[in-house]
């Protein structure tokens, strides 16, 4: 014999179901939309690109264009409004920082690199200075092979160049007669990997298996040695905004400085500020 639910009970069940459906929250549409442009340090590009990809996944209506050009280009782009966010891989001068908001997002290690076949494992700061000032010109004088030293530097607008000149050369310019200049970090890595006598400097994000990192004053650059201060060639990585920057840029910077963004910085092999 079939049991028939009383009408009042059936009505109650149907009403409850309807109420439950009504109370189920609807997905909130993402209201952020627009286009952000970034320019500047090629050192920061390998860090910012994956962070930008993650940001766009959260906000699919935002497009992001990331260009290089060097720290000086990033500073200029923020000043004249051609980019919303500038990228710098060194401390700004007092003149450069006028009208600019700075947000340090990470620390970077400036690594001294040579050809993988070079037997030299460590150099002192004084020896690196001697190389770039042309006082030492053969690796045999530094415990290496009998071959000419080919120092490689970055071009003048590079943040890596600015950091190296400040931290290693005491704010002077290299004067070695055979010094070579690379436009980008990739160009520097390619030159050093193809020339047995070459030496240069790169940020952590630009290190490749085709080159060899040497210790400075006996200390190999790592996240640990950079954090504890035992490795001295450490520099800030900075995002910059200016008076012509659109407000959307701050949303991205806040994301990079959030716990999620800083964890990503660490996971990508850089040194977070938080």
Structure description:
34% of the residues lie in helices and 23% in strands. It is α/β, with parallel strands linked by helices and 274 residues long. It has two domains: 37-107 and 235-272, 3-Layer(aba) Sandwich (D-Maltodextrin-Binding Protein, domain 2), CATH 3.40.190.10; 109-234, Periplasmic binding protein-like II (D-Maltodextrin-Binding Protein, domain 2), CATH 3.40.190.10. Strands 1, 2, 3, 4, 5, 6, 7, 8, 9, 10 and 11 form an eleven-stranded mixed β-sheet that branches. Strand 6 (150-154), helix 5 and strand 7 (180-182) form a beta-alpha-beta unit. The radius of gyration is 26 Å and the shape is elongated. It starts with 6 loop residues before the first helix and ends with a strand. The model is unreliable at 1-27 (pLDDT under 50).
Number of strands: 11
Radius of gyration: 26 Å
DSSP helix count? Answer: 9
Query: In terms of per-residue confidence, which ranges show pLDDT below 50 for 5 or more consecutive residues?
Result: 1-27
Please give the largest β-sheet: 11 strands, mixed
Strand proportion: 15-25%
Domain count: the total is 2
Briefly note the CATH topology name of the largest domain: D-Maltodextrin-Binding Protein, domain 2
Q: CATH class of the largest domain, anyone?
A: Alpha Beta
CATH architecture of the largest domain: 3-Layer(aba) Sandwich
The averaged pLDDT comes out at: 89
User: What is the helix/strand order?
Assistant: HEHEHEEEHEHEHEEHEHHE
N→C terminal distance: 70 Å
